[in-house]
């Protein structure tokens, strides 16, 4: 059982770092509340124990201090609804769960409200990034925030790769017993650790998306751990060109041809199989209504570009995935946003789901692959869908994430 699950929060004031950086439309309505709902179980456990909760988060990228559109006040109503949906529990004597808002995370009002919070009550602090000190990792700022609670819970995996005041620096002001990951962070960290450090073999990493340059470090780190690496999406064509293929107008980073060759050589040296798409669905323009044809990926005619993996590639990739015991997936296999080029990504999502049903552990992370499994309604058919794009990428690049290290040290 995790430290958080076994901790009794009764009588405690838990200062919980969450990632409430949700998208809003022009009328300030939340368009996707995944990040908020993902952390509700953490808040509810503290409340059910008889503790009170002080939530702190960043919201957008305010440049010059307080700005209305970046105010967390726009989220209070929805937070209240999420906490008071059917099935919510609060200590006996409390009807619904009260949610208070402090319009400055360091004001006297914030300190007084935090101090007066009763068990079962929640206080949301205003956007931490209204203070420059947050992103600078300012120690004095972190210390002031730390005074608002007596236990520190980090449930913000999405910002775990940042050494900010509230995500990492603050942890030093709590004893080792009184700082811990929340339920969301714990699932993220244990799923990622399982894949990176305790993977059952065969371990297949599926890496896609537009650019090789964004994924070099992750591929290099995975060469030490995976048995198979599937490379799809736009980035595959840089590898195919580096090997002497003709890729027409497909996406290519000409300044990364050497890197691609060195990755292929390292893989051979280490006995890791790299799978590139044998054929591609090509288009005569980058558009939803383009004309298409399937060609070999190393013989794409001039004027055409590969926008999805072709049927042969789908067959080979699916077979590798079905034979895997551990699967990591980051990045789509093609321009899945357009119907004509979504078959590759959809087929790969289905193969990952099938392997998972047959006992493999699968972790999907990184914005676009998460969007893809959601689009194809397969999110509940994989083992874990990560909420942290950048954080997950850095974790799999082998970097130490400050938000994790601060709790573990
Ligand atoms: P990334 O953010 O690097 O993971 O890239 C995701 C984006 O790559 C998605 O918007 C895809 O549409 C795009 N993409 C995937 N395959 C291709 C391709 N063959 N050519 C151009 N763009 C692609």
Report on this structure.
There is one protein chain. With 409 residues, this protein is of the alpha/beta class. It folds into two domains: 179 residues, Rossmann fold; 208 residues, Rossmann fold. The chain has 16 helices and 17 strands. Helix 5 links the parallel strand 3 and strand 4. The two termini are 19 Å apart. Bound molecules: adenosine monophosphate. Adenosine monophosphate binds next to strand 14.
Throw out a few tags for this protein.
single chain; 409 residues; alpha/beta; Rossmann fold; 2 domains; 6-stranded parallel sheet; 16 helices; 17 strands; 36% helix; elongated; binds adenosine monophosphate
Briefly characterize the structure.
This protein is 36% helix and 16% strand. The protein is an alpha/beta fold and 409 residues long. The strands form four sheets. It has a six-stranded parallel sheet with strand order 3-4-2-1-5-6, sandwiched between helices. It has a six-stranded parallel sheet with strand order 10-8-7-15-16-17, sandwiched between helices.
